[in-house]
């Protein structure tokens, strides 16, 4: 396995550690009080650092693969898979703690299912699709929105709020809402672009 693929694998490995600091532990109603208090007070900040590290691996694996001609079908698959797993896992955690709407998350997940389905049809014909530019823009807007939402409780505390979920409605949280809405819009636009440009795979799949 070459270096870019190892970076993609690292991104996947970081997912459970990121979630560990985002969500309190609850097993049939029981949870370690000390740990859960730490997560409530400081966990999101640590999760943000881990998420940023994971996001940087996404940037570096592509650059390294292109610079040293290490682009492989496995690399294209792992890169896309790692991105989807990271973003969806973190957004599900935000739904769990009540920060974002499950309806908006479903739009993102349905888009990913559609794109994955088209890629499966393309793979049957021997074509492995790499990410398009509009898809990369969508990913960037998602990363920006998620990173802001992760730092949001800390920003609120600095501003004099308690930063405890559910968060108060104020300019700080409104900015988070706007950033997340932009990433949802870009998700829809990139999904439609992907669908329209690959209709031939759907027409010829019967």
Describe this structure in words.
This protein is mainly α. It has one domain (3-203): Four Helix Bundle (Hemerythrin (Met), subunit A), CATH 1.20.120. Helices cover 78% and strands 0% of the residues. The protein contains seven helices and no strands. It has helices spanning 3-22, 33-67, 73-96, 102-124, 133-158, 171-197, 199-203. The longest helix is centred in the first third of the chain and has 35 residues, at 33-67. The protein is globular, with a radius of gyration of 18 Å. The protein starts with a helix and ends with a helix.
Attribute tags:
206 residues; mainly alpha; Four Helix Bundle (Hemerythrin (Met), subunit A); 7 helices; 78% helix; 0% strand
User: Count the helices. How many?
Assistant: 7
Radius of gyration: 18 Å
Average pLDDT rating:
87
Secondary structure class reads: mainly alpha
The best one-word shape is: globular
Order of helices and strands: HHHHHHH
Helix content: over 70%
Q: Compute the separation of the termini in Å.
A: 36 Å
What are the segments in which pLDDT stays under 50 over at least 5 consecutive residues? none
Give the domain tally: 1
């Amino acid at each position: 396995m070459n270096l870019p693929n190892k970076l993609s694998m690292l991104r996947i490995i970081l997912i459970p550690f990121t979630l560990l600091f985002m969500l309190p532990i609850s097993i049939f109603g029981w949870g370690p009080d000390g740990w859960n208090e730490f997560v409530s007070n400081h966990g999101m900040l640590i999760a943000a650092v881990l998420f940023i590290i994971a996001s940087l691996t996404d940037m570096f694996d592509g650059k390294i693969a292109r610079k040293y001609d290490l682009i492989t079908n496995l690399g294209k698959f792992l890169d896309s898979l790692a991105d989807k797993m990271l973003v969806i896992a973190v957004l599900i955690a935000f739904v769990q703690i009540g920060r974002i709407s499950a309806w908006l998350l479903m739009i993102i997940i349905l888009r990913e299912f559609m794109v994955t389905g088209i890629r499966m049809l393309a793979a049957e014909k021997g074509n492995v699709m790499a990410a398009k530019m509009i898809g990369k823009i969508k990913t960037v807007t998602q990363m920006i929105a998620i990173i802001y939402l992760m730092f949001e409780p800390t920003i609120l505390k600095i501003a004099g709020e308690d930063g405890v979920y559910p968060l108060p409605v104020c300019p700080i949280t409104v900015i988070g809402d706007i950033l997340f809405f932009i990433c949802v819009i870009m998700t829809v636009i990139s999904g439609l672009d992907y669908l329209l440009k690959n209709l031939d795979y759907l027409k010829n799949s019967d």
